[in-house]
Give the backbone structure.
Amino acid sequence: MAYTTVHLLRHGEVYNPERVLYGRLDGYHLSERGREMAARVASTLHERGADIVSVTASPLLRAQETAAPVAEAFGLKIASDERVIEAGNDFEGSAVAKNPAQLLHPARLVKLLNPWRPSWGEPYVEVIARMTAAVREVRAAAEGHEAVVVSHQLPIWAMRRHLEGRSMVHDPRQRRCTLASLTSLTFDDGTLVALDYEEPCRDLLPDSSTAVLP
């Protein structure tokens, strides 16, 4: 019996004062608090004696910066994987969080009508397929140990709902996947036997006046 755990780690807070929906845009660094979050997660895993043998991250800067302290804590190199990147988003580059009224423009409003192909443009089924493939590969390589995969809120949440057999139609504001949270998948060989969630940085989460977009 070989138990293997794959920890899906959401990146930390990003420096984004204009509240741009950055999506897959590169160049968005972690904020000072985001760097503290990344260090906290690394410390949490190391202090509990986690048997981390690999660290994989989305190629986006915020994910790479979140992965760095974890990789350093366990003496590992970061492997980049496009399959765990943020979901494609047609609103990328806009500031819809700062001015939600932008969504009422007919060209944008029409993108909200189909819950199976949401505003970000990439269907849930595609997000789940690439995340599943990446997790399967990481699990096999880390057989009998633990691994960390740094990704983004939507891909992690889609993976979780899929594994729990729940519909993907949901309110994005109700996602249980906060900044620098860990969604941990434990497998017995290739069979999922446990799904756990924790927030090592709960006390560092921004309040509603400083919240940033996922």
Q: What stands out?
A: The first strand starts at residue 3 and ends at 10.
